[in-house]
Every structure is written in structure tokens, then in C-alpha cells.
Task: structure prediction
Amino acid sequence: MRVISGTLKGRNILGYNIDGTRPTMDRVKESVFGTIQNYIKDSIVLDLFAGSGNLGIEAISNGASKCFFVDNSIEAIKVIKKNVESFNINDKATILHNDYNKALNYFNNSGIKFDIIFVDPPYKYEIIDEVINKILEYDLLKKQGIIVLEFESDKLKEKYNNLTLVKSKKYGYKYVYIYKNN
Result:
């Protein structure tokens, strides 16, 4: 696993073998970041279910000003901390060891809103619909912000309130949907 573009391009990311995670493949990440490139510069990013921090690190490499990494696994948190330190991006990273509900509640109570939210939970949970509804309920996505979702079998709608599906693509057995907040 490596950073595929930006200032950290070519650097290796630790954590491809964390129990319970499946890292986003390079070709999928390349396609996603090609699509969202215009949203990244100076953005505030949430990498929910962060795993190794792969997606958030890629966003920082491409100009995001801040990324909040959230994962419920202590092993994942340790790996994210190692990656953040090795890439010397501590000033742009906040790492939270929490489940997604507590983390979203924390952001709501703290008034933190995001330009980009990555949601890539373990496939067996099928909770993306629930996560989208929490993000909307708490108003965590800025106007014109985007949510990038990676999943296997969740059933998602074309539209959720002000969120409109702008891209959907299948990669093998997984799907990537990108919604924009209009």
C-alpha cells in the first residue's frame, strides 16, 4: 500500500494487514481521488473507519488542511499514529479511538463540519445508510461537501435530503458511491 499522488507520492503506508480491515486498492483509490481532486485543496476531511489511515493520508498528500482519523480498533489507531509520524503530518492529523456513533456525536457537539467524509466500514456491518442519516441529522457536511462511500452489499438511495449521488462505480465485488451536498 502506498500514497499514489501528491506531496507524499510513492511513500509506503503501513497497515495493509490489520485484522478486520481491507485496504482500498490502489486502482480504486486512484479513480476516487481523480474524481474528487477539485474538492481536496484546503479541505477538512473525516476518515471514518480509517483502518490504516490510507484515504485520509492520501487527502493530506493532495492538499487537505486537516484530517480526523476515526477507528474503533486499537491496532488500527496504533498504525495510523505510526503512519502520521513517519509522514511528518502530525499538524494536519487528529486521531480518535472511538466507534463511529460516539465520533459523529463528538463532531456534532464540537461544531466540526467537513468538506470530505470517507466512509468505509467493514462490509459485514451494512451500516452505511445509518451513517449517512447521522451525518445529515448532525449537519456534519459543509455545503458542496462530498461523502465517499465504499461498500459491498448495502442498499443505498440516489438521494438523501440534500445529498445527491454524483458517481457510482463497481470494482470487482465492491462499490464506490460519491454524494454531494447541494
Q: What stands out?
A: The domain at 26-181 is CATH 3.40.50.150 (Rossmann fold).
